[in-house]
C-alpha cells in the first residue's frame, strides 16, 4: 500500500475519520430532533453556496461553510420561530439550494469551474489547510456535544420540558444547527454533496436500531462510522473503487447487519 | 463613419437567418474560414462552459432549430451533444466522422476521448469533413468551398508543422495532466500523456489511477504538470505544494483571451507553454 | 407575593373566537389548586400560556411576581403535559431521562417514591401508558421545582397510582411548600384533596374552597350543551 | 413566443403540466404518511438505476421506472413488514442509490457525462414516446388517487384504524409507493434527479400551510403546482433560464407567499 | 359462538419476560366487558393482539369463531386506541374523518349523539384532548361494528362526557346487541355499568360479575408492589 505513504492520502484518511466521528454523533441528535434529512437539505443547499461562491469569485470552501451555517440557522428560524414543520423547512432549503445552483449555472453559462466535482467528494486529495480546518472544526463540534450533552438529550426528548429545565431553546437549537452545518461542510469534503447526508444519517440509524440507551446509541453510531470510514477507504484502495461509494457502502452494509440482527432476535 | 457602420451592418442583416451552428468553440474558427461569407457561423454554448457536463437552455434550443447546419463533435463531448443531434435531425453533422478515435486515458475505458481539436493534425480531417457538409448543403457553391478549404488547410498545415518541429527535441516527452485532454496531441506528436483518466471532473477519483499518476511523475523525475486554463482544480493546489511541481496552464477549451483571439493563435500559445514546460530546444 | 397571577387574561387561537376570556386568579405559595372544566374549556391552553408556549392576546400573567414576558427562571417550574409526542426510536432509558434533571441520589429517591424503580433501566418508549405518565411526573418533580403544573397527571393511571400520586402532591404542597396546579376530570379526587378549585370554561366560573364548588361544577357541566356558539 | 411552435417544446409543457398535477397530489399523501422525503430518496435511488441501466446497456427510461418502483416497494417492505422507521428506510435507499451510481461510475469509467444530464433534467426536450409515457402514467396515477381517495385519507390518519375499516394495508401501501415511484420517474424527466423531490414536496407543503380541510389541501397543492410549472416555463423562455430552476423557484416563491400570509394572519 | 375467545394466550415483547401468560376468556355477543388492571398489566397489549397488530407467542385468539390468523373481516370491529399519533398538519376536519367511514345521514346522527356537532367542521388537530377522544369514538361506532374495543375511552373526558359515553356504550350493548370491551381505570364507572369484569395482570385474575370483582381488584392493586421481578 504505497499510496498510504503519500501525505495527502494520509491527510484524507485522517479527515475521513474525524468527519466520521462528528457526523455520527450529530446524526443521532438530528434524527431524534426529527431532522433526519437536515444533512441532505443542507448539503444540497451548500450546492447553491458553491455556485454562488463561483459567481462571486470568492474562495468556495470558506464561503460555503458560512453560507451553509446561515442556511442551517434559517431552517431553525423557520421551524422554531415561525412554526414551519421541520420537514417543510428542510425540503425548502434542499430545493432552494439546488434551484439556486441550477439558476446560477444557467445565468453564468459555464464559468469553467468544475462545480460538479463537488457533487462527489474526493477524500484522497486533501490539502493541509483543509485538514487543519477539519481538525479544528471537529474539535469544536466534539466539545459542543460533550459540554451540552444533557441539554441536547433533554431537547430531543421534548422541547417544552427542556425549556422548563432551564435550557435556552433558541440558543441551543441554533448552536445545534450551526454545528451540524459545519459537520455537513466537512462531510461534503469527504464524500461529496449527494453522499454527505449518508455519513450523518446511516450510522445514527444503525445505532438507533441497536442502542438500548441514549449513551449506547451515541457510542454505537460513532463506532459504526469509524469502522465504515476505515473499511471503506481500504476497500477503495484494494479494488480501485471510489472511496465515497465504498465508505457509504460499508455504512449501509453495517446497517443491514444491525437490521438482520434485530429481525432475527424478535 | 456612418458609411462604415452600414458596411458592417449589411452582411449582418442580410444573413441574419442564414447561419450554421457549431456545438463548441474550438471548431469555430475553422468553420468560419470554411464558410467564408456564405454563412454566419455561430457557437452554441459559451466558450467557458464545461462542455462535458452541460444542459441546453431554451435560447440555445431555439438557435438549433433555426440553423441551416448544426456541427457537432459527434463523439460526443457530453450527453447534451446527443440532444443537439436529436433536435437538429438531418441538419446535424458530425465533425469527427471517419476520424480515428481513441479512448480516454492511457489505460482504456469505455469513454472516447473527445478532445480532437488539440491536435492540429486531426483538425485538418475535421476541416475536410466540414467541407463535405457545406458542399452537400450547397453543391453549386463547391468552388468557393474548395478554395476556402485550401486556405484553412494551409493554415492548419502550418500549425501542424510548428507543432512537429517545436516538439521534436524536448528534454521531457511526458505530458502529465490530471484531466486526459491531451491524448490526441500526444499521439500525433510523439509525446506520451500521463493522466488520472477517470477522475477529476466526472466523479470520485480512482485510488489506483491516482497512485499511478504520482508514482510515474516521481519516477520520471518530472517537475511540472499541466492544468486547464479557466478551471479550478484541487490537483494543482496539492501537487504544487507536495512535490514542488510547477503548474502550466494550457488553454484547452480554446477560450479567447490574452492568449489569442482565435484557434490558431491560441494553439500557438499552447505550443509555447508546452515548449517551456517540456524544455524544448 | 403570589406564585401565579392571571389578570384579565384572554387568548384566541385564530383571532376570532376567544378561547379564554377575562381570566383572573391568584395562587399563593404552597397552595394545591385543582383545575376543572369541560372538554375544550381552555385548561390546557391556560397552562401553555403560563408556560410561555402561547402568548396571551390580552391581559397578563405573572410568575413569582414577574410578568411572563420577562420571566426567565423556568427551572423553578415543573410540568407534566397532557400529551407528549416523543420521536419513535428515542433510545433513552428512564434512568437516563431522570439523570438529565437530577443527581444520582435524587434519582434513587424519586424512583422509590413513585414506585418506578423496577423499570428504571428500561427504555422510556417501551413502557405502558401509565408507566410513562409516572416517569414524566418523576422528571417534573426531580429538580424540586417550586411550582408544579400538571395536566391530567392521573389520566391513564391505575387507582393505586392515582391515590399515591395525589397523596404525594398533597404532601409536596403541605410539607414542602410547593405550589401545585393540577388539571383533572376526576372530581372526586380533586374535591377531596385540593385547597382550592378553579372552575374554568372560557372564563373563571368559580375559584375557592372545594366544599362550595360542587354547585358551580354541576351547573358548569350541565350548561355545557348550551354554549354552542361559543369557544369550548 | 416562437419557441412555442416547436413540437418538442409543446410536448415539454404538456409533460410539465401533467407531472405537476400528479406530483402535487402524491405529495400531500406522502407528507402525511411521514414520507416527505420519499421523493428525494427515490429520485436519488433512481440515479443508481440509471447508472445500472448504462452498465447493462438497456433502455434507461423504462429500466429506471421499473427499478424505482422496485426500490419504492423495498422501502415499503422495510417500513411496514420490518418496522424500520420510515426516515431510515428512505435515507437508506437515498444513500444506497447514490453509492451504487458512484461505484458504477468508478468501475466503468467514463459514464459520467451521460449520467450527469439526468441530474438536471430538461423539460424542453421531450420525445413523443416520453410524452405518451407521461400521459398514460399520469392518467393511471390520477385514477388511483380518485378511486382510493377515502382509503388513502384514512391511511394517512392512522394505519391501525384504516386496517379496521377494511383497508388492505399491504396492498394500499404498496400501491401508493408504486404510484409515487412512477411520479418520481416522470418528475426526473421534467426537472432532473436532484430537483424531482421538490415537485412532490413543495406544492404539498404549501397546501398544508393553507388548507383548512383535506380536500382543500389537495386542490391547493395541485393549483400551486400548475401555476408554478406554467410560470416557470414562461420565465425560463423569457429570461433564458433553465426551466427546472425556474419551476422550482416559482414553487418556493408561492410557498413563501403562503407562509407570509399565515405569519401575518396570526 | 363467541365473539372473542382467548385460549392459553401468551405474549412476550422481547422473548424473555412474558407480558401476557396463559390468558383465557370468552365473550358472548352483546356483552359489555370492563377490563381493569394496574399500569403495565398488559391490557393494551391484549387489545393489540386481538386486533392483529401483535402476534401471540403462544395460544390463540378467535374472533367471531375464526382464528385471528385467518380473520379478515376487520370492519366488523371498532377501536379507540389509548394513544394516537397523527402527523402534525394533518388537515382533515372532523366531518371529513367521519365521512371516511359513514354516510351523510349517519354522520349527522353520530354528531348529535356524541355532542360533537358544534365543532364538526373544525380540523381534528385543533381540538382539545377530550374533543379528539370523542371524535375517535365517533369514528369507531360510525360504521356500526359488531365488536367495540375501547382502550381507556373516557380518559381525558369531562364527567359529563364520561357518563354520556358510558351510557351510550351500555345502550349499544343492551339494545343493539353490540359486544363491547372497554379498558378503564375508573373502577366506579366500570363496576356500575358493565356486565362482566376482566381483571388482568399478566394473567387473568378474575373474570365474572362486577359485584364479586371488588375483592380481587383490591387484592390485585394491593399486591402490585410485590411482583417486582415480573412483567408489569
Ligand atoms: N392548536 C389549536 N388551534 C386552534 N384551536 C385549538 C387548538 N388547540 C385547542 N384549540 C381549541 O381551544 C379550545 C380549548 O382547548 P384546550 O385544549 O385548552 O381545552 P381543555 O380544557 O384542555 O380540554 P380537554 O379537557 O379536552 O383537554 C378548544 O375548543 C379547542 O378545540
Ligand atoms: N413496545 C414495547 N416493547 C417492550 N415492552 C413493552 C412495549 N409496550 C409495552 N411494553 C411493556 O409491556 C407491559 C404491558 O404494557 P401495556 O401497555 O399492555 O400495559 P397496560 O396494561 O395497557 O398499562 P396502562 O394501564 O399503563 O396503559 C408493560 O410492562 C410495558 O412496559
Ligand atoms: Mg386539555
Ligand atoms: Mg394501556
Ligand atoms: Zn475535457
Automatic annotation (TrEMBL), chains A, D:
Gene3D superfamilies: ABC transporter involved in vitamin B12 uptake, BtuC. Pfam families: ABC-3. InterPro entries: ABC_BtuC-like, ABC_TroCD. It is found in: Cell membrane; Membrane. One of its GO terms (biological process) is response to zinc ion. One of its GO terms (cellular component) is ATP-binding cassette (ABC) transporter complex. The keyword Transmembrane applies. The keyword Protein biosynthesis does not apply. It is a multi-pass membrane protein. Its main location: membrane. It comes from the Bacteria. The chain crosses the membrane at residues 12-32, 37-56, 62-81, 88-111, 131-149, 169-187, 193-210, 217-239, 245-264. Keywords: Membrane, Transmembrane, Transmembrane helix, Transport. Belongs to the ABC-3 integral membrane protein family. PANTHER family: ABC-TRANSPORTER METAL-BINDING PROTEIN, METAL TRANSPORT SYSTEM MEMBRANE PROTEIN TM_0125-RELATED. This is Zinc transport system permease protein. It comes from Hydrogenivirga caldilitoris.
Automatic annotation (TrEMBL), chain B:
InterPro entries: AdhesinB, Bact_metal-bind_prot9, ZnuA-like. SUPFAM superfamilies: Helical backbone' metal receptor (SSF53807). Gene3D superfamilies: Nitrogenase molybdenum iron protein domain. The keyword Signal applies. The keyword Phosphoprotein does not apply. One of its GO terms (biological process) is cell adhesion. GO terms for molecular function: metal ion binding. Keywords: Signal, Transport. This is Zinc transport system substrate-binding protein. It comes from Hydrogenivirga caldilitoris.
UniProtKB/TrEMBL annotation, chains C, E:
Keywords: ATP-binding, Nucleotide-binding, Transport. Residues 4-226 form the ABC transporter domain. SUPFAM superfamilies: P-loop containing nucleoside triphosphate hydrolases. The keyword Zinc does not apply. One of its GO terms (molecular function) is ATP binding. SMART domains: AAA. PROSITE patterns: ABC_TRANSPORTER_1, ABC_TRANSPORTER_2. Pfam families: ABC_tran. Gene3D superfamilies: P-loop containing nucleotide triphosphate hydrolases. Belongs to the ABC transporter superfamily. PANTHER family: METAL TRANSPORT SYSTEM ATP-BINDING PROTEIN TM_0124-RELATED. This is Zinc transport system ATP-binding protein. It comes from Hydrogenivirga caldilitoris.
